[in-house]
Amino acid sequence: MRVSGSVVVIAVLDGGSGAGLARRFAAAGTAGMLIADQHAGIAEDLAAELDRPGCPVVGVCGDIRRPSDVAALVDTAEKHLGPIDLFAVAGPAGERIISLADLPDHLDLERLAELVLLVGEAIGELVPPQRRPERTATAA
Fold first, then answer.
1. Less crowded by CB within 10 Å, the N or C end of the chain?
2. What tens digit of pLDDT does each residue of 70-103 get?
3. How many helices (DSSP H) and strands (DSSP E) are in the chain?
4. Which segments of the chain have a pLDDT < 70?
5. Which pairing describes strands 86-91 and 94-99: parallel, antiparallel, or unpaired?
């Protein structure tokens, strides 16, 4: 996976941290990054810290569990940074990076739906399953 010269979107889930991932991408020579966090101000502060000539960084508030937010992230990234090469999800159980090499430069609705599906799969891999309370047998 080629990181140098790539445009990257990093979406952070509750319990995840995108800071280390964003710093690694910046050190590897990305051409630009969009960082999204569910909590206002976090992504914006990290973007301000990492933004530099040759690698603009945009921070936004967004929840990638909502397809409309994924669409907004894609639109914002393409508007400010160009076509997205990599989409990363940082969750409580780690990180997952999705390469968009097979998708066209511009994501139409059909391709956006494919991206939403991939992001959903990444979320499922990174969020620990909820433990269900065990049922106890009761005598009738």
1. C
2. 889 989 999 999 988 998 999 888 888 888 776 5
3. 4, 5
4. 102-112, 128-140
5. antiparallel
